[in-house]
Design a protein that fits this description.
Radius of gyration: 26 Å
Helix content: 40-55%
Strand order of the largest sheet: 6-5-8-9-10-11-12
Keywords: Membrane, Transmembrane, Transmembrane helix
Number of strands: 12
Order of helices and strands: HHHHEHEHHHEEEEEEEEEEH
């Protein structure tokens, strides 16, 4: 979007220059003579201003920007194509798919068209950019990853499956839990109720609970114990139009892996916590 900002600044400056010329001309014969002598420059200025305000120049700028990003191996989408009936459902499903794309394939996304927009040509830029990206993604990855992520995002996951999705490993230590979080930009963590900070490099360690905040999700994991066994309680919190979900429980096996907890054991753990993680 840097190119868009620079073009906007240049376009506004050229427009102000034209307005200033038109304001000064009636009051200055010397200025009018100068405009007449440089009529070609004046009309070029008029054409530039008209093109800036009345042509969809954002589309080719977005198209070229996407070509440059593809050449550098950077993949991003401004809008995820899909058809649903409800606007609320569209927001939730697009952000769920964007979460899958970011975490599984490293493909960034705004999740919805115009999330960071507001300038007149932003939609045109997004359309030109996405046209290139939608064609480049299956070529680069060798399959339709958007459809794959749509299918994946539509399926319900257990706590153990979610933990395996977000973390490379979850280990029980003498002081609490240690999770291995993959390198992902713009992710934040709050450890044991402390301050929100960027995900540190390497494993994340905490004794009681941690909140993980990404662009498309906010969830909390807590360590719990019952009858000498250790469990991980996972709860998704409301975030940018995404609803809150009830807490889920995963057990920690003797090998230190997270596995599904039987329903009766999950109910017992939640009951011991007052139905919600601390």
């Amino acid at each position: 979007m840097t190119a868009m900002v620079l073009i906007y600044l240049a376009g506004v400056c050229v427009t102000l220059a034209l307005v200033l010329a038109l304001v000064i001309a009636p009051f200055s014969s010397r200025f009018r003579e100068g405009l007449h002598a440089d009529a070609r420059k004046f009309w070029a200025l008029v054409i530039l201003v008209a093109a800036f305000w009345f042509t969809p120049w954002g589309w080719p700028v977005g198209y070229v920007s996407a070509l440059c990003d593809v050449a550098r191996g950077r993949f991003f989408l401004h809008s995820i194509p899909m058809k649903v009936d409800s606007e609320e459902r569209r927001v939730q499903e697009r952000r769920a798919i964007a979460n899958e794309l970011q975490f599984r394939f490293g493909v960034g996304s705004t999740g919805m068209r115009g999330c960071f927009g507001g300038l007149p040509q932003d939609d045109e830029f997004d359309r030109g950019y996405d046209r290139v990206m939608l064609a480049a993604l299956p070529v680069h990855f060798g399959r339709d990853i958007i459809e794959e992520c749509k299918q994946s995002a539509s399926k319900s996951r257990t706590a153990a499956e979610w933990l395996s999705f977000y973390f490379r490993s979850v280990k029980l230590t003498q002081t609490g839990l240690e999770v291995d979080f993959p390198e992902r930009p713009a992710w934040w963590v709050k450890i044991d109720g402390g301050a929100l900070e960027r995900i540190p490099s390497g494993p994340v360690k905490f004794s009681r609970k941690a909140e993980f905040l990404g662009q498309f999700t906010l969830f909390q994991i807590s360590l719990a114990s019952l009858d000498g066994r250790d469990f991980v309680v996972l709860e998704f919190l409301p975030w940018h139009g995404l609803p809150q979900s009830g807490p889920q429980v995963a057990a920690i096996s003797g090998e230190g892996k997270v596995v599904d907890a039987p329903p009766e054991l999950e109910a017992a753990v939640l009951a011991s916590l007052g139905s919600r993680p601390d």
